[in-house]
Design brief:
With 544 residues, this protein is of the alpha/beta class. The chain has helices spanning 2-28, 32-59, 63-92, 98-131, 136-168, 171-192, 201-230, 281-284, 287-292, 308-316, 329-338, 354-364, 406-415, 436-446, 483-489, 499-514, 535-539; strands at 233-237, 242-249, 255-261, 265-271, 298-302, 321-325, 347-350, 385-390, 416-428, 451-456, 467-474.
Length: 544
């Protein structure tokens, strides 16, 4: 039984760690800052637990004491499930720097459970040595066996937590499950000492009450989620993120459906009465690319989310083909169920990392290439894209650094047609300390593209404010039309059946052209490369 104790407690540690990032993400984000704090704090408290557990085990190597430690860990885990929302809300509103907020959150929530679970390992070994009267000459083998079982449990917990529990039952129910398992494990520890449960009913009272509490709270959680769903709120844990969908009524009476990603940021929006209309202001700014390169036929969208831009393009432009790369299949499924995404012969969706797709597509552009374009697709001499749109930065808290480097820009360059362009959304200021992220990404693309332009959403008087900035990179140097030239060109003919959107496209493009930032950014930063891309450091000023 003690072997089972070591195995299950080892699994609990890693399931707790894997689930911890999802619990913290809605309040503090899911960046490397949060992961660093979570891993570092848990390792620190485990280390203290190893030391403390060894000392206590030498004093009282009794199964009942071991059971009490495990039971304490179970109730510490239960505390996480019950009170994490209040603790994290308090920390998020306290104004800490992001890294300090993540450290404090990890300490308060995961520190006690980690310390107690750390005590289990040396305590279990010491109890086993005592009960089995193991000779000193065989102690090493016993210690090695228990260490291996604990490590194997941790490995299993890592894969179960990351691949199954979070995606299939959600983070909070996973926490309740871990607490329930630990309460049951405490009974195993008692039984390992030869204690008969039927004759010592008081020993099982706390674990049984704890198990009942976990079942009650788990049922209450499901009831709460059902009530939220009926009120227009859907929460989903996928393998890659925690998503929340809400329906909100605007002052004019229209209902806007929003897709939120951690930490409570709106990623996509859709009006229920007009599913293909661009509802969020930043998505409308991609129209600059379509206005600068009218008549484009081949589009690539990096990042799907609610598929707002793909739906709009398919609705307003008929003679196009559109590839969308979305890493998370669950996001696409949600878009089909809740954001009116429909199958279209012009639309091809690729579920993979955007950088991997770009790398493969760039290689397939080489003459006589044998690189497959997609699963089941052809090979060699792939056609270039007219426009590639980048929207993979879910927030300044979660930056896929591999999408901002010189190597990524090179793949984008190769994937474009000879007259093609790339347009990407960057959350940044244009000047000051909070412009570092934009400056570094611009430097990366300027290493590859001959003509790179920056179009802030706000006028030059507000250049120090955080805003949506459209970065546009042209494969060939271009003489671009001015704002007045664009006005004289008039509405795009392909939008004749949708004049309101046609005017909005034109006005958005005109405003961005008028805001073009032509001044060289003072003190430009070096380009980002795959082996050194400190985007988290450059983005840190944006977070506070």
């Amino acid at each position: 039984m003690l072997e089972a104790v070591a195995f299950l407690c080892g699994a609990a540690v890693m399931i707790l760690e894997m689930t911890g990032s999802r619990i913290m993400a809605p309040y503090l984000g899911a960046s490397v800052l949060v992961w660093t704090a979570l891993i570092g704090v848990i390792l620190a408290f485990l280390s203290v637990g190893y030391w403390l557990g060894g000392k206590l085990a030498d004093r009282t190597p009794e199964p009942k004491r071991l059971a009490a430690v495990i039971l304490g860990a179970a109730f510490s885990v239960l505390f996480i499930g019950l009170f994490h929302a209040g603790v994290l809300s308090l920390i998020a509103s306290a104004g800490f720097r992001p890294e300090m907020g993540a450290i404090f959150a990890a300490i308060f929530l995961f520190g006690p459970a980690s310390l107690l679970l750390g005590m289990v390992s040396p305590y279990t070994v010491r109890v086993a040595l005592e009960l089995r009267k193991t000779p000193v000459g065989q102690a090493g083998a016993l210690i090695g066996r228990f260490s291996a079982l604990s490590a194997i449990g941790s490995i299993l917990g890592t894969f179960l937590g990351g691949y199954f529990f979070v995606a299939w039952i959600g983070s909070r129910l996973t926490i309740y499950m871990v607490a329930s398992v630990l309460m049951s494990v405490s009974l195993l520890a008692v039984m390992a000492g030869g204690v008969k449960i039927g004759k010592n009913k008081r020993l099982v009272l706390m674990p049984v009450l704890g198990l009942i509490a976990c079942l009650v709270f788990g049922a209450m959680q499901k009831m709460w989620e059902l009530a939220e769903f009926r009120s227009g709120v859907v929460k989903v844990d996928t393998r890659y993120s925690r998503l929340e969908i809400r329906d909100l009524r605007e002052p004019g009476g229209r209902i806007l459906r929003e897709l939120h990603t951690p930490p409570d940021l709106v990623q996509s929006g859709m009006y229920l009465d007009s599913p293909t209309e661009l509802a969020l202001s930043y998505t409308k700014k991609f129209a600059l690319a379509w206005q600068l390169k009218p008549g484009s036929g081949r589009f690539l969208m990096l990042g799907g989310a609610g598929y707002s831009i793909p739906k709009y393009l398919l609705r307003t432009r008929h003679d196009i083909t559109l590839d969308v790369v979305e890493i998370d299949p669950a996001v696409t499924e949600l878009a089909r169920r809740l954001f009116a995404l429909k199958d279209d012969p012009r639309l091809t969706i690729h579920h993979e990392d955007a950088r991997l797709y770009l790398n493969r597509y760039a290689r397939s552009r080489a003459p006589n290439s044998s690189v497959p374009l997609a699963a089941g697709g052809g090979t060699g001499d792939a056609p270039g894209y007219d426009i590639i749109m980048g929207d993979t930065f879910s927030s300044v808290y979660n930056l896929p650094f591999q999408m901002s480097t010189v190597e990524c820009a090179q793949s984008i360059y190769t994937a474009l047609d000879d007259e093609g362009l790339f347009i990407g959304n960057v959350i940044s200021s244009v000047t000051g300390e909070k412009s570092q992220l934009l400056r570094s990404i611009r430097a990366s693309f300027e290493r590859v593209f001959p003509d790179v332009r920056v179009y802030p959403s706000l006028s030059s008087q507000h250049s120090g404010q955080i805003q949506n900035v459209m970065l546009v990179a042209f494969k060939q140097e271009r003489d671009l039309p001015g704002a007045n030239d664009l006005r004289r060109r008039g509405l795009a003919p392909e939008l004749a059946a949708w004049p309101f959107q046609a005017r909005e496209e034109l006005n958005t493009a005109v405003n961005l052209l008028e805001n073009e930032w032509r001044i060289r950014l003072a003190g430009d930063l070096p380009p980002l490369y795959d082996d050194f891309a400190p985007v988290e450091r450059y983005a840190l000023p944006l977070m506070y």
